[in-house]
Amino acid sequence: MAFSSTLVFTVKRREPELVVPTKPTPREIKKLSDIDDQEGFRFQIPLMFFYRDNPSMRGKDPVGVIREGLAKTLVYYYPFAGRIIEGDNRKLMVDCNGKGVLFVEADANIKIEQLGDNVLPPCPFMEEFLHDVPGSGGIIGCPLLLFQVTRFICGGFALGIRLNHTMADGYGAMQFLNAITEFVKGASAPSIPPIWQREQYLNARSPPRITCTHNEFEQITHNKPSSDVIMDSDKLIRTAIFFSPKDIQALRNQVSSENFHRCPRFDLITACLWKCRTIALNPADPDEMVRVSIIINARGKQGMPDIPTGYYGNAFTYPAAVSKAGILCTSPLSYAVHLVQNAKAQMNDEYIKSVADLMVIKKRPKYIVNWNFIVSDITRIGFDKVDFGWDSPVYGGSTFAAPVLSFYNNFKNSNGEEGVVVPICLPPLAVEKFQYEVKKMTLNLNAHSKL
């Protein structure tokens, strides 16, 4: 049973099943790229989609529709039906054995309208709509995808998806979902044929050589020992911040100059969150080195690797901006914006090759956790437009926030304002201070902003 202070409902789940490709698929071993199998990607990432009833789809069961579309899609994306295995030097590979992906059918005795803003990250009912099937959450030897379709009594439904991140990034996941929607609507094949070729793209060079500075992986030292920020995931509070167009304009007004005349929304939000989060976490030493790592996708960008359309592997790195905490906290917003933009400018073909080489040379290290904040903008991927026939979702995207990782998602609030919602994890004592700092920073034009 799920409940909040005002909402109580029950979700009944059937036994999990394995959905396999509708046709025989190749039995083979496929290696992941050296970008795919780094330690920092070895986790499961959840996505949530909430759909209202659509009169034109009456009589059609979303469970059956999505299950059938998924099975047809797995013929083309057959590695997803396999299992990860680990070889020498921790190299990850996919055993394409066709065992299938997990699928859970469920029913909830509630209308989607009753959920209200609970569809937003951090969704308090995630466990109900995307149940962790016991024994399925590992990276090696477990199903690579978990789908749960939960019907509501109003005719709407929720779709929860859990993805092994070593297999695909956000763009790859979206490509896979698009293929499902195409099959649901009668297609005989995906409009974009999937491309594997991990051995050709984003693998380490021979011999590998680190040619760039990678502050996202390297500990930066100063004369004093670094203090730890306590980010115990079991004790963190998950909250979210909504940035309306007025909030963005308020941030933009603080950096208005020729240098920042066309400052992207992402840069403003990232600078704001990095500064406010650091103030809220209150480093004991003003000389503490803090960083924000910025996830940048390499697809279709000038100066990046020539990654073909259809490639669904991980194709991003996350160069870091670095500052002393005291300077970041006391400087104008433009200081943080400048650092963010400089970090983004590091990303090019050589940088991503250097990361792949670093993974091989240093045995696939994890990113720096202490005093780091990793951000990913998924507002342009299209999760908010995934349509299985029931039109676009009320909310579609990540509901996920890890101790050092946040995703930027599209959302239209109850006032009809389209903006960006960002889930974030913080220690209990830092939450109120963080919300206050963000509100203060967006107060310039929006004194009544609801965060």
UniProtKB/TrEMBL annotation:
PANTHER family given in the database record: ACYL TRANSFERASE 4, OS05G0315700 PROTEIN
TM regions (residue ranges): none
UniProt keywords, alphabetically: Transferase
InterPro entries: CAT-like_dom_sf, Plant_acyltransferase
One Pfam family in the UniProt entry: Transferase
Entry-linked Gene3D superfamilies: Chloramphenicol acetyltransferase-like domain
Family: Belongs to the plant acyltransferase family.
A GO molecular-function annotation: transferase activity
Protein name, per record: HXXXD-type acyl-transferase family protein
